[in-house]
Automatic annotation (TrEMBL):
It is a multi-pass membrane protein. PANTHER family: MONOCARBOXYLATE TRANSPORTER, MONOCARBOXYLATE TRANSPORTER 11. The keyword Manganese does not apply. Residues 173-376 form the Major facilitator superfamily (MFS) profile domain. This is Monocarboxylate transporter 11. The chain crosses the membrane at residues 42-62, 101-123, 129-153, 174-194, 214-232, 244-261, 267-292, 304-323, 335-354. InterPro entries: MFS (IPR011701), MFS_dom (IPR020846), MFS_trans_sf (IPR036259), Proton-linked_MCT (IPR050327). It is found in: Membrane. GO terms for cellular component: membrane. Keywords: Membrane, Transmembrane, Transmembrane helix. The lineage of its organism: Eukaryota, Metazoa, Chordata, Craniata, Vertebrata. It comes from the Eukaryota. It comes from Ophiophagus hannah.
Amino acid sequence: MFLLSSPGQRVGREDPPLSARFPLEDLFLTEMLPPEDPPDGGWGWLVVLAGFLANSLTFGVLRSFSVLFEDLVGAFQATTAQVSWVTAITLATKQFATRPVVMLGGLLSSLGTFGAAFSTSLFQLYLSLGFLTGTLLATSALSLHLMLSGALLRPLALRGDPPKLTAIFDVGLLAQRGFGAFALGTALLAAGYFTPYIHLDAYGRALGIEPYSAAFVVSLAALADALARLLAGCVADRGLLPPVYLLVVFNSLVGLTLLFLPASSSYAGLLLLAILYGASAGSFATVAFGVLPELVGVSRIVNATGLCMMSMSLGGLLGPPLSGFLRDQTGDFTASFLMGGAFVLCASLVFLALPSPSPSCRSAQQNEMPSIVGHH
């Protein structure tokens, strides 16, 4: 541009020509140049939203099962162990992956819950989810939103060689001492982790608490879980303790809370223990997936997460039916909660054997972030 010192007089330099500032060849680019670094912000926040919705809907349905438990036992005239298989089978089929799998999983979850509303036998309930028509039809509509969450997971292509089938099923991770111990610990944890969300409402009713108040205990535990996830993330980011130590601390708190649950004989005591359980369980969940990258590196985190979900499914397939069987045999929930606490504390002992992340693994985390090109 020009600076005008007086009317009609120009002082200063001229700007470069328009063609130099905006080359014409830029108008004919057919594709975007790949960025040097992975994209940050923007669409990433929508992926975070998708993850939040997916976890809220899937685990929300699981955690609300306790409220339906006693009604299902009465509706089907079944034992506690038989109805507990519903949650066990649900846990065994939980999978986490990318866009098409999440969308398909959301559709199957919605159809399964919809069909469960019309179940007339316990076997049909195993294949779907439940019996209470109004509640489960509403849950089916909510589960359908998982498809929207999956649609937000826009795929990103990595520059380089295409992935091989062997890279998708990276079972070689199980041969690593650190990841093998972590997978075993998560399997033991899952055998007791979900026990309160199955029996907490029924346990409250057994103490003489009215149904709505007993259901509030479950809701309060879930609320404490959600808030603790945020707070635990802040604590972990400060680096006051290594993530592995935090993992052991929070997991041990989960186990101790389960052991003390049978000692609660009042509504106030049950509320307190439910809050402690929810807070410790939520804190563990946040820290657990912060430990994985330190054990396997960023490039293998997706495969490691999938294998961990599989190991948790195996533990979840064992825990709920066993806790229900103990309830049927003993006539109360004491043995069920003690069993759950014992499994969780055994997981803490396994987590104590986790190795500290090696310097090579830490340096790899800084160098393993490949350049990414978004596909539209």
